[in-house]
Amino acid sequence: MEKVGKEFWSLDQNKFSFVFFYLLILFLPTQLGKHFFPPFSFAYGLRIDYLSPTLYLTDVLILLIFIFSAKDVLTILIRRYKKILLYFLLFIIFLLTGVMVSKNPQVGVLGIFKIVEYVFLGTFFYLNFNKLNKKILSILLFTGIFFESILSLVQYLNKGSFQGLLYFLGERSFNQQTPGIANASINNELILRPYATFSHPNILAGYLLLSTVFLLSFKNTINKYLIKIILIITTVGIFISFSRIVIIAWLLFIVVYFLISIGKKYKNPKLNTSFLGKELVISLVLIIFLLTMFSNTILIERFTLFSFSDESIVQRLSLTSSSINMIIKNPVFGVGVNNFLNNLEPSFNSPLLIQPVHNIFLLALSQVGIVGFIVFMYLFIKSFVRTFTLKDNKFIKISLLFSICFIGLFDHYFLTIQQGQILFTIIISYLLLKPLKN
Question: Which distant-in-sequence residues (6+ apart) come within 8 Å of 289 by Cβ?
């Protein structure tokens, strides 16, 4: 009787951890949280959000996943991955050593706690992926993508936020005149870039791209017409975000995705004219419609008016130069986890200037040195190797890996913003999955 009771409790624990993981996927785009500003969250006398300890709703959900699954996860790690667990502990000791000699040890220790949090989340997803309900994952991903795309469109048309209940999902109060807001400047005219529930339009665009491609991994679980709907609204959301890098990555993906889809249909021996008269025509009409709709002067000028003298480009180049200097001065341990901002020159003396370098590879190398950077790059190399040993979903996984690397060359939110960090953790864990044995 006691044995049955234990088994039942164990089953309930697994169910609870899965439920909280599903909720995490649903609330991933939100940024509801409580910020704290102790003395170490200031740089050059300025209160900096990047350094602020913050408890997000998504942190609470990860904690609940940990409570209901930690025992099983640790048991599996000790039994099957003892050597990897040892390497990870040594890596944490290495990071702590670097943090102890950094300019801001407190924020560094908090950063290491976040690394442990995300490593646990990634491990949970990796070990339980085959047990997760892919239909539920698809529905939740669809819901998040649809909601964020529609909200971004409404904000774009409204030229500002709505607040109300959306405040509790993380929507900030803003309009075109809000100081520091991300507008697209086209021929001296400010065009509002929507944020949805994210802290920047670029993060919104990155979320839409990666979540949609990830959703296509489970396309067999959803209606094919819903796939077309999600491709359309994702395109709308990405285009009105005016995120150059994500727009380029998305257009490349869409073109190759449809070419591969058409190629697979032609390889099908049962191909008939119904496909040519239905699927192919609909797909081509959708592409032409979207390209026509968004190939307007504003979007074109977003690219053609690009100049290296733009303030944002000059700032990024300055941050890159600072990053390289940090790497040269601190090649082994780096400046310490989360310590990039504290090591910027005094010339970076405003909240708009105090930012991480817009490149996740330079940021990692700056903060954790050569040893930490090798570990970081190992994730990408291992993902690359695993991806090319697959037979199914190879194109989707290649697209995910390419998108993270491409976006990561020009932005930092995969390592610095809660939503980006969780998304990065889940995608990399997915790419590291071993191919199923036949």
Answer: none
Q: What is the pLDDT of residues 205-262, one digit of tens each?
A: 999 999 999 999 998 888 888 888 899 899 989 989 989 999 999 989 988 888 887 7
List all residues 6 or more positions away from 126 whose beta carbon is below 8 Å from its beta carbon.
Answer: 429, 432, 433
CA distances from 81 to 68, 78, 87, 348 (A): 20, 6, 10, 44
Per the structure block, which two tokens stand in for 108? 């560094």
Average per-residue pLDDT in the chain?
86
> What pLDDT does 259 receive?
80
CA separation for the pair 82, 80 (Å, rounded): 6
Rounded to whole angstroms, the Cα distance separating 58 from 62 reads: 6
17 neighbors 69 (Cβ within 8 angstroms): yes
**Which helix (H) or strand (E) covers residue 185, if one does?**
strand 183-186
Task: Please give the Cα distance from 43 to 226 (Å, whole number).
Answer: 47
For residues 159-182, one letter each, b for 16 or more C-beta atoms within 10 angstroms of the residue's C-beta and e for the rest, the string is ebbeeeebeebbbbebeeeeeebb
**In whole angstroms, what is the distance from residue 192 CA to residue 174 CA?**
10
Q: Cα 299 to the chain's mean position, in Å?
A: 24
Query: What is the bridge-based pairing of β-strands 33-35 and 54-56?
Result: antiparallel
Sequence-distant (≥ 6) Cβ neighbours of residue 276 within 8 angstroms = none
Q: pLDDT digit string (tens) for 358-380? A: 999 999 999 999 999 999 999 99
Query: What is the token pair recorded at 160?
Result: 């500002």
**Tokens 């913050």 — which residue?**
54
Residue 293 has pLDDT above 70, yes or no: no
Q: Are 218 and 137 in contact (CB under 8 A)?
A: yes
Flag whether pLDDT at 296 surpasses 80: no
| pLDDT tops 90 at residue 168 | no
* 12 against 87, higher pLDDT: 87
The region of weakest confidence among 276-280, 340-344, 347-351 is 276-280
Return d(Cα 31, Cα 330) in angstroms, integer.
33
> Residues 342, 346, 350, 356: what is their CA dihedral angle, to the nearest 10 degrees?
-40
Give the whole-angstrom CA distance, residue 76 versus residue 82.
9
Would you kindly state where each structural domain of the chain is located, as residue ranges?
2-132+307-431, 135-304
